[in-house]
Give the backbone structure.
Amino acid sequence: AQSVTQLGSHVSVSEGALVLLRCNYSSSVPPYLFWYVQYPNQGLQLLLKYTTGATLVKGINGFEAEFKKSETSFHLTKPSAHMSDAAEYFCAAYSGSARQLTFGSGTQLTVLP
Amino acid sequence: EPEVTQTPSHQVTQMGQEVILRCVPISNHLYFYWYRQILGQKVEFLVSFYNNEISEKSEIFDDQFSVERPDGSNFTLKIRSTKLEDSAMYFCASSEWPDTQYFGPGTRLTVL
């Protein structure tokens, strides 16, 4: 069965600092990978996705993620954090055989002034 | 930009009652899903629906749950006899292709 692990349930960064949120997947076949963001009292918004092709993918709000097959990772980064980035971030994987998204447990990002 | 919408935003019900959660997927999407998130836990897949039938369902999706697409726009999740443990945020999602799913804002279900 596929699983997604997010290291660090809470991450705090200072405004302007690098954001790094970690995600590893467990699958014999590399799945399609996604990052979603959830702002307080809102739904899940798609940030970016990797399906095939270029391993560095760019998303909305200045976020990007790099697919590394050798490390089974799909970490999310942003060069400079903004206060508005404070939210919960979910990594998710989709495999064709399961036809469903499998989510990680989420990382709550706090941005300190 | 098209969005998935869900109603109601919050539903409070008594244990044993039936609830229907409603979703309007993005109009040209063909695949529909329900997920739930119990407070403090992971988002969990419940069911996927394509071509007017269930294509996948999880162990959570037992006989108490059902889904329906009653018309060309709505997609509903029914829980026949709610339990306390059904209290959660329920998310509807839709997609044009199975992989990239767009989520609605969720319905918070509270079972008393």
